[in-house]
Amino acid sequence: MRGCWVWFWADHRQYSDHFESVIGVDFTPAQLELARSRNPFANVTFKEGVAESLPVSDGSVDLVTSSMAVHWFNIPKFYAEVDRVLKPGGVLACYSYHVCAPLYKGKNLYSEFYEFWENLNRYWPKKYDPLKTEYTTIPSCYPEDLHLK
Ligand SMILES: C[S@@+](CC[C@H](N)C(=O)[O-])C[C@H]1O[C@@H](n2cnc3c(N)ncnc32)[C@H](O)[C@@H]1O
């Protein structure tokens, strides 16, 4: 396959085997510096750029991913860019983290941890709200969107 798009510097380990070319994009130079310093793959490169104006040509990408970042983007502009860069049949995958269920001596501490998480959430900026709702509040890019947990 040709072309893949990632924002998560750890992701390139998963994608480098499956795509001829993997491009990591972020607008924060420090993120890119760290990503480059830890990248052993020849087919993975990093570019400084914004999600709303991606530095790739029209219809050239098979997969666009966003790891823990889409809630920061201007969604209508980002979706228009995704539509521009994806090949027909290409895929956009946006993912993030949520509360884990820690085990301690065989006991599932989900409810205790969730209480801590809920308290912590009060101090997060509004921009983080889509994380709390597991991205269900972010509008769909395409009508056939899937929401996976
Ligand atoms: C929570 S960090 C996630 C970083 C990385 N994707 C990961 O999974 O570890 C969010 C990242 O999104 C980047 N970011 C936020 N808005 C952006 C935008 N409009 N265009 C490009 N990068 C953006 C920030 O610079 C930051 O590095």
From TrEMBL:
Alphabetized PANTHER family for the sequence: METHYLTRANSF_11 DOMAIN-CONTAINING PROTEIN, METHYLTRANSFERASE TYPE 11 DOMAIN-CONTAINING PROTEIN
Lineage top rank: taxon: Eukaryota
One biological process term in Gene Ontology: methylation
Span of domain Methyltransferase type: 14-94
Pfam families (UniProt xref): Methyltransf_11
Keywords on record: Methyltransferase, Transferase
TM ranges: none
Family of the protein in this entry: Belongs to the methyltransferase superfamily.
Originating organism: Halocaridina rubra (Hawaiian red shrimp)
Name of the protein: Methyltransferase type 11 domain-containing protein
Phylogenetic classification of the source organism: Eukaryota, Metazoa, Ecdysozoa, Arthropoda, Crustacea
Keyword Transferase appears in the UniProt entry: yes
Stored CDD domains: AdoMet_MTases (cd02440)
